[in-house]
Amino acid sequence: MTTPWTEDQVTALAPDANSLSAARKLVNRWRECGQHGTALWGQCEGSGATPYQTIIDLSGPAYRCSCPSRKFPCKHALSLLLRWAAGEVAVVPETADYAVSWIGGRAARAAATADRPRTANPATAEQRRVRVTAGLEELDVWLGDQVRTGLAQADRSYRAFEAVAARMVDAQAPGLASALRRLPATIATRTDWPDVVLREFARMHLLIAAHRQLDTATPALRACIRTHVGYPNPAEAVRGEPPVRDRWMVFGSRITEDERLYTRRTWLYGRESRRWALVVDHSFGSPGFPADVPALGQLADAQLHFYPGAAPLRALWGERHSVAEPFTTLPADAGKPATIAAALTEHASALGADPWLRSWPMLLADVVPTRAEEGWYVTESDGTALPIRPGEQPWTLLAVSGGHPVTVVGEWSADGLEPISVFTAGEVIDLVRTETFGAEAPHPPAGSAGSADLTSVALLGTARRTPDLAALAPSIARGADRLPSDPAVRLLETAALHDLFLRGGFTPATAAAPEPAADDPRPSLPRPAAARLSRMLRERSAFLPEWFEAARPHDYRAPDALCEQLLEHAEINATMREPLLRLAGARGSWLAARHPDWRGLVRSPSAASEHSADTWLFGRPPDRRDWLAELRRSDGGAARAALTAAWPKETGPLKAELLAVLADGLGPDDEPLLETALDDRRADVRRTAAGLLALLPESAFTQRMRERASAWIRAEHRMLHTNVALALPDTLDATAQRDGITDRTTEFAYRWNGAPDVSAARLRQVVAATPLTHWAGVLGTPQQAVRATIEDRFRQPIFDGWVDAALAQRDSAWARALFETGVPTDLAMLRRRELFALLPLPDRTAHLTRLDGSWLSEIEALLPAMGHPWPEALAKHVVLLLFERARAAARRPEAHGAAPNAHRSLLAAAAVHLPVAAAGTLSAVARRCDDPAWERAFDQLTHDLNHRSMMLEELQ
Length: 956
What we know:
Radius of gyration: 37 Å
Largest sheet: 7 strands, antiparallel
């Protein structure tokens, strides 16, 4: 029986993110699914009457689907694989009839191909070698011309390199063509491009010189030369090499794409042999790689067949002797320590055998990632350090380490170490390169004086200058004396010697490890929940607020590997910043302190009481505000006294922010300070003080506002109605101006007779600052007040002032009266939802459930005031209204607004706020839909609710 794949393995097969997203939406639309041996099949309901038949050959994998998609695998195949990975596809005794013929045909063709002998034609091989030799000689002449003329004057355009690379393709030397095609990007993106170009030119020249002596080379070196040139090496010939059996541990995997050719590189390490292996797979068009590679962090007892070479690394899978299983420890061997010195010695040995080697894997135990001014390093306890490749931003590695020793797996090259994975606490964590919002500029590695001189000669050209051999190391200088006399050839070969000398004899640097992070005693976030959160953060999911609210009572800490992602999103998402930082915890704070863009996210609290006064007196404005807010919560009187003492010396925008802190626990004792603030020179301070004083019903400010309202507004009670009479002053006295009544015409924009209406703006400010209880003695109940007759000119500002007062004073009775009456201005209509939110929840629910389908826009406007999740009665009502739209669309599909796209925002809100228990109802409704688009919309809602249900269950 074939072992089900993991979800990560299925995800890696997706040709793009849209296909994967579409596949997740189809998981509830399958029927008659099954698995038998390596065959997997099922029928997926689509928009037509006939379901799509999907078949997967797991041994390939290979895919067949009756849908018209040209992607491989299509969304149906991905969805079926996801169901299989989740254990939702049963194993059956027989393969379905429609799958038998296709699976059988594939097996027959594979058997016929395997039985057909493949023998190389000597004449063809000789023709290829002649063609390759001719092409390499042309390339060698071109290389000499480049350094003879000078790299500074040579044509460095993409077209120039592509022309030479195309000639190498014609000469059947694809290895050299690939190296040439990488150079234009290097020239465009790296400041040290002359060093890199000279190094690559020297490497090519050395390879061409070795190819001339191919017949006299040893078999291992001959195989090495052929591989780097690009001669074919059939898999059948590789599998003829002696197998190496071991328990191979998977330490990393990377997938790259170049012109639709996907390449997967998987690094393996033998538990007994202590030997590295690299398995390379290719797939054209989509990343449909074989699923025969164990997942990261697993090992398999298997045989590997290594490609022949002087330093064999690449291998093919051979016979398997066990299923893959996770490993939680690393082998310990005193004779082969995993130190920096031992890894460099192994690399030097491999480089000596294969001088064209670009990189070599390393396993470094007990190292600490370190960030210094010169760049990144991994450091041992004695300070011995290896530089990390410039351009790498291993913040996840630093987060996992937290200043403590870990085991790092990476690839060592001429540019430095590229981290691949990290092993800690019995787990292998993939260090996938993430998009960093604030990436640092790479630091080019410093070269020696000899390197600078050789590069200078290459830039100017050997026709103008020759290298100074005295600047080179003595051993290189002695070898350079015996090189050919042609200056260009001599420069290339000297550069090759110098490069190999530097790489093979690399001397480690020294660096100091950072202070370790503090421990976080909170329980760790469960692994499934952490994986889902990471995916939701990448997708900017609308369900994140619900996730964080559900996780808050558990007070989890995030896995260390997730801290980088949490801090990146905390930087750009202010509304979610607090829960993101709380989840990141102590490790996140430690990491943020070392990142230039994240330092402002986490402020160090003043834990010791003796430092509290210093924070208030000398701290930064945000620290002072936070200190005062914390003191206000614990001791309101002390906070008020501290602010009162500092008030005369406070300046700037912070002054209003500090005064606003008094809103927490506002009381009569705060009135003297607020009255003083009314005389402040800053307008924002005066407005803040007036707004807070208006919330104190017994304050002198509100008494002045009552008197002012009584003088300006009178009620004339008639038999059938109440008339509002107004007596507004032409000018404002000093007392009114001190209380914040100003001529703010630009803020309110009232107009009368074509000109700004200053009196209307003043009236609104007075009404808004007057306690609502005042109007009971003037106009009666709120319902009576809103029915009073008011002059057209002043009806709008009076109602706007009542709305301001009702929202500020949180008066539900006035909110009900204003909401039921309706407000007469477009500006106030935007605040209708805020009034609605002040009503009791049963009243809000009853109001919305009374509205039918003709009021969908009103329902949609008020739904944000219903909280989360929606009450059951409201949820049923919304689903019913949407189903009515689906039935109408089935009857008249051409009608305007009948499609689900016309209700995208309502469907999106339903996906977020419907109770998760409604998933079964939505699934049943989807089956009753006659319109295919609405059926898909209800299926999507069902999928979203199931996703939320699983999301909440994983947190338990």
